[in-house]
Write a structure and sequence with these properties.
This protein has 352 residues and is α/β, with parallel strands linked by helices. It folds into two domains: 206 residues, Alpha-Beta Complex (Quinone Oxidoreductase, Chain A, domain 1); 131 residues, NAD(P)-binding Rossmann-like Domain (Rossmann fold, 3-Layer(aba) Sandwich). The chain contains ten helices and 17 strands. Strands 3, 4, 5, 8, 9, 16 and 17 form a seven-stranded mixed sheet that branches. Strand 1 and strand 2 form a beta hairpin. The longest helix has 19 residues. The chain starts with a strand and ends with a strand.
Length: 352
């Protein structure tokens, strides 16, 4: 089969003759209909942070049609519309049995398993299909489904760990695709005053639609000072979804109150170390919780998010600002994600 494979630092190319996956026990082969490049793909390409990926097709955001079903699969059949979580779980891993499902999770092309490839290819293998694949409701579009596979699972997990009560004040730091979904997640969780930090008009427009009460432009001055001044003091919680560098976490710790929560879902691959000024947590004496959060995998979580789209609680299609038709446009969409196009939030590529 054909796929767009990572070759080295800032090097990727189309490869023919890649082994087409075959479904074994409990597995399903999916034929992608629509994929979306992620900023993680861009950072991985720029840094080659995971050497095991070399030679594998890239990509971890996809929705498609079931092409082949292996023995033992109960809930899926050929022709089903499905979405694949960006992290799939090895449900037989003992760490999962101890409640640490994320430690048993992997994005397929991060894996050392040569059978597990990325989704920028003509076919895609899903292990543990009954527990990883998600049925797409008839009323949910392809664009909605593919955006939720990573942007939704990441944002909602980050907001989940804020431990919000209704009416609390929340800051979403960085309103790209994940941040905008986090705005909506915080709104649905009952946030009162809801700050969205960014600079692009396209993002501000959607942030307001998704429930943000305050739009903060980081180009207008120090972010933490702007929020503290507007709020009349610290906020209850901050979710970091972006920022120019890892200093965004220090800003978040400065903005959050004693006893508050900060979660980080951003990936800062270019930054090798992080210094947290000691005074931001009163030299260790303030009860501030800082948590690094990965997205949640699994069928149940993604199917719940798809229900939110089905019943109009979230509108992930608003993030799909650019749509391309034809597998060959993956390169253009990937470059757009990494090229700081101020009109782009999330390009999606249909394989037709």
């Amino acid at each position: 089969m054909k796929g767009y494979a990572i070759e080295g630092v800032n090097q990727a190319s189309w490869r023919d003759g890649l082994p087409q996956p075959e479904a074994r026990y409990g597995e399903v082969v999916v034929k992608p209909v629509v994929v979306a490049p992620c900023t993680s793909d861009v950072h991985i390409l720029e840094t080659m942070a995971f050497p095991t990926m070399k030679g594998k097709p890239m990509g971890h955001e996809m929705a498609g049609i079931v092409h082949e079903v292996g023995p033992g699969v109960r809930d899926f059949k050929v022709g089903d519309r499905v979405a694949v979580p960006s992290l799939t779980v090895d449900w037989g891993d003992p760490q999962f049995q101890d409640g640490y499902d994320k430690y048993a999770s992997v994005s397929p092309y991060f894996s050392e398993d040569p059978r597990l490839l990325g989704c920028f290819a003509e076919y895609f293998l899903v292990m543990g299909a009954d527990l990883n694949l998600a049925h797409i409701p008839d009323a949910v579009t392809w664009e909605q489904a593919v955006v939720l596979t990573d942007m939704g699972t990441t944002a909602f997990e980050g907001v989940h760990w804020l431990d919000l009560d209704y009416g609390q004040s929340v800051v979403v730091y960085g309103i790209g695709a994940v941040g905008l979904m986090a705005v909506r997640a915080a709104y649905l969780k009952g946030a009162g005053r809801l700050f969205a930090i960014g600079s692009r008009e396209v993002s501000f427009e959607i942030a307001r639609e998704f429930g943000a009460s305050d739009l903060v432009n980081y180009r207008d001055g120090d972010v933490a000072e702007q929020v503290l001044a507007r709020n009349g003091g610290p906020v209850d919680a901050v979710v970091v979804c972006g920022g120019s560098d890892i200093s965004a976490i220090a800003d978040a710790m400065k903005m959050v109150r004693f006893g508050g929560h900060v979660t980080n879902v951003a990936v800062f691959m270019h930054d090798k170390q992080f210094v947290l000024p000691n005074e931001l947590w009163a030299f260790g004496s303030q009860d501030k919780t800082l948590r690094s959060v990965s997205c949640r995998g699994g069928r149940a979580n993604l199917e719940r998010l798809l229900k939110l789209a089905e019943y109009g609680r979230v509108a992930p299609e608003r993030l799909a600002t650019h749509t391309y038709h034809g597998m060959e446009h993956i390169e253009k969409a990937l470059a757009q994600m990494g090229g700081h196009d101020r009109t782009a939030i999330k390009p999606v590529v249909f394989f037709d």
